[in-house]
Design brief:
mainly alpha, Exo70_C
Length: 627
Amino acid sequence: MRTPFFSSSKPSTPSHNSSSPHTFCETLLDETIENAELIIEKWDLDSSSVSTTSYNRVANLFRDNPLEAKQLLNAVNDLQHAMQFVIKDSASSKLLVRAHNLMQIAIRRLQKEFYTILSGSRYFLDSETVSSRSSRSSTATLSSLSDEDEVSEDNNNNSEIEKVSEVVMADLKSIADCMIGAGYGRECVKIYKLNRKSVIDETLYYLGIEKAISSQIQKMDWELLEIKIKNWLSAVKIAVTTLFHGERILCDYVFSASDNIRESCFSEIAKDGALTLFLFPEMVAKYKKLSLEKMFRVLDVYDAICELWVKIELIFCFDSMEVVKSQAMISLVKLGDAARAMLSEFESAVQKDTSKAVPGGGVHPLTRYVMNYLVYLGDYSDAISEIIVDLPISLQTSLPESYYLSMTTEDGDPPPSVVALRLAWLVLVLLCKLDGKAQLYKDAALSYLFLSNNLNYIISKVQQSNLKLLLGSDWILKHEMKVKEYMSKYERMGWNKVLMSLPENLTIEISSMEVKERFSEFNSSFEEVYRKQSSWVILDQKLRDQVKVSLANKLVPRYRTFYEKHRRELVRNVIGMESTVRFAPDDLQNYLSDLFHGANVSVSSMGWSGTSSPSVSTSMSSSNRSR
């Protein structure tokens, strides 16, 4: 029987056999015992012999006496080999009892050394140090690390901490190899598991990873759960790439002598902590209070697992760790289901929106909300592509087939990604909803201004975000042309009455009465349009300036030609001129410049402000503008 770990009882050493060994194997064992006794009894934990001092019993053999530590290991190996020969030749030899007792003395010392190194060298066995050491290794497998008595020239430039770490790992490996070879692997593994499992548990605790119950998560307020999610996101990468990766490296290296031992050892020290780590995302996915705004936290967690998946598969590749990979995959699937549900809910919420149109034809709150949401989604394109790959697009709506044709590509070009198609679809759902809201305006011109504003805002959000890469330049160009089409319709419907008040052919002669009628008609139509559109708004400065320039180019030159042509007649009849000609050509330019800021202007302030030439009134130039 083997002496229990750190037993205080010392096995009795029988006296030498009076008769000489009769076989070669027994002679070999007798000589091996004689040689091994010197070093083994010197470092006997309980010996009272002269050769064993009190210092020897408490000293760190491998740290303070590496040469004698190696001699002790060699003595155990030699003793084990000699015993195996004798067992085959003469299993009842009394020398086996003596050798076995001597072996237990040595094993107890090695157990003590193994425990001391593990517990006293935690700093040098830090997972980050072990991981970084491995990452710089020129070899792909851990089993190719140098033997314990060799120092690789590749590590000459390593820090002192890493050099000490190498020595400590080599010492642990040499003890493990020796004890496993001698048949005491179970005792060695027991010490290792107790020590390193506590390291994993303590590290996870300091990282904020604790066991949670699903019912507790369900009862949490979102603010508290979000804090826990943020903490998990900060911890998971460290836990996988440093903690578990480092422990896997250390375990593989120390127990490289046995595949079964290193698998069972790593499984027992890491399984519980890893399951706790990957169970939390599943609880988040099942949180009953998830809403659209919380989707991005779900995607953060999903993305984190996806990014670490390759390492997860490598670190937990053992059959005994399949449960860990399974839990991580379950969490990934549940998170994907939750994200798909929220994405469908988002689309449904857009389609069911019943909010009213905004005054002045500005950007609708729905447009802002949807586009900000899609911009965030665009930043999660990799995760979204996996989540929505099997999520069908609902075609229960009267949408133009030309849209789908615009998303296809020419022969030889790569097809649009599932993310691009989904995002483009959601934009289209928004545009269809905006079309419905545009019909709420009684003025057709304002409807088209509203559509221009909102589509222009959508394009700007696409251009300023990752959506630009996903939707592509063709999508942007197509919708920019649509903005121009909307603005053209706005100008035609909003200003056609003013333009039609002037003669179609400005070169022909007309009577003074008709001139007066034309000016009067122009005044009333311009005042009416201006009054109506003074509260309309174009939020984008570039688009606003483009519209002003376009209107000015259509209106001012025609009015100037008509004004200059009939000015002499008006001058001859000064009386009543102010009421007949209320605007000079430059006045129109100034009035147009004050449009689309959303400021209401009194009609009484418009018109002739002087006796010689009409100009913009003081009240108009100082009108309050707002965006």
